[in-house]
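Bench notes, afternoon.
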Amino acid sequence: MDWSQLSVLVTGGTGSFGKKFVEIMLRDYKPKKLAILSRDELKQHEMRAAGFQHDSLRYFIGDVRDAERLQRAFHGIDIVVHAAALKQVPACEYNPFEAIQTNIIGGKNVIDAAIDQGVQRVLALSTDKAVNPVNLYGATKLCAEKMFVQANAYSGGRQTRFSCARYGNVVGSRGSVVPMFLEQRKTGKVTVTDPRMTRFWITLDQGVKFVIDCIGLMHGGEIFVPKIPSMTMTGLAETIAPGCTIENIGIRPGEKLHESLLSEDEARSTIELDHMFVVKPLHPWWDDGNWRNGRSLPDGFRYASDTNTEWLDGPAMLKLLDPATLPDDLLAAAK
């Protein structure tokens, strides 16, 4: 893709993903225009103050709940990355209507505006929590995935195509457990909900580059899943807070012991590539000629954090973390 000829918009552009996406796009891809849509004027001001100023950058105040504003924001846009979401599990559980308004109704508004304004490609961010969801956040992202896949039927003969990228926990992002462990270690005690718990991990850089790659590869309708490593939460706590007491506090409502990125049922319509899996849609509009180079998965396959073949140890995890956030002892251990 010749990004220098494209106008790109990212929803939720002041979040952890959005800021890293903007940084990498400006540095490596240099799009003709890069628009940031978010609802918080303070965060947009802080981005500008932090150096996110460029002739190609545009800042839009707006909410994905506002369908009319999206119509205006998407005018003249070629590529949309939909990252806006309510994603804190406890907050979504306590405020279910708000989560539905943003994650589901907001997704519908993105789809409608993209089709109406002739956007070429839309990639929506999803999460491992959308696979066999046990909390409202995961359920809303499952609904969003279904909407964005089937949106290709709504666009019909128009040029707009929709796909999703689904990956696991982002190391050190806002809301990640890593900052919590760094704060708890000052007290000499860190809390883990269950010593057996495992999670997938990916860095912001890896997540952004994966999304950009998927935009170039998508035919419309795929769910892209990267191959990423796992780590136990106990191992993570011991890495971040060596010598501290680890208190097991029990699984909280809406929390899984292990996460899945591919269910056994999805695996039947999934192909494997060297660095990712591609879930193909089971709809009449899908061209079976797409993705001829992938390998079928064996019967019974599931891609879960506890059965993963790739694992992180302590030093490998420390190398993934932002050095600016680490105390001296962890910086030395990371070298």
